Amino acid sequence: MAWTPTPQDTPFHRLGEVGARELAKRFYDHMDASEPALVAIHETDGAKVSAGTRERFTLFLVEWLGGPPIYSPVHGHPRLRMRHAKVAIGTDMRDAWLRCMNAALVDVVPDDGVREYLAARFAEVADFMRNREGT
Which of 31, 68, 123, 132 could in theory staple to 100 by disulfide, Cβ–Cβ 3.0 to 4.6 A? Predict the structure, then answer.
């Protein structure tokens, strides 16, 4: 079933803050469990992505999903490409990121339409972030 957000029915409205936070948590849990190359490009606590990195992404995700502006007042405009420019992002890293996010979506988002919508948007953003040709 197709779903398209409206100003009154955003992904954040569907997930709530608890769901948005759980999506971010599960995303990094999947990364820690199965994508060591992706973990390696993040700040870590031992072998896992750091709590600070997880929290920054959670704040960003809440706002990106249509929730309250809790990222921008603290960290400024996301400037995703600029902030990630120091990291070589080819198709391998993009695909690893998407594997983690898609697994988290399956874990957290019960509504097929919302999950499919978000998977498509995340794929667009992940592809936009590529800054290297090839893998």
Answer: 31
> How much is the average pLDDT of 73-83?
91
Report d(CA 2, CA 43) in Å as an integer: 37
Where do we find the tokens 């469990």?
A: 33
Residue 50 lies in a domain: yes
CATH assignment of the domain containing 125: 1.10.490.10
Distance between CA 67 and CA 1 in Å, rounded?
23
- The pLDDT, as a whole number, for residue 1 is 58
E strands present in the chain: 44-45, 48-49
Whole-structure pTM value: 0.94
The token pair that represents 59 in the structure block: 């704040």
Tokens of 3: 């779903």
Q: Considering the domain boundaries, does residue 134 fall inside one?
A: no
Tokens of 9: 């029915």
Please state the domain count of the chain: 1
Domain limits at 28? 13-129
> Cα separation of 51 and 21, whole Å?
13
pLDDT in tens, 40-64: 999 999 899 999 999 999 999 999 9
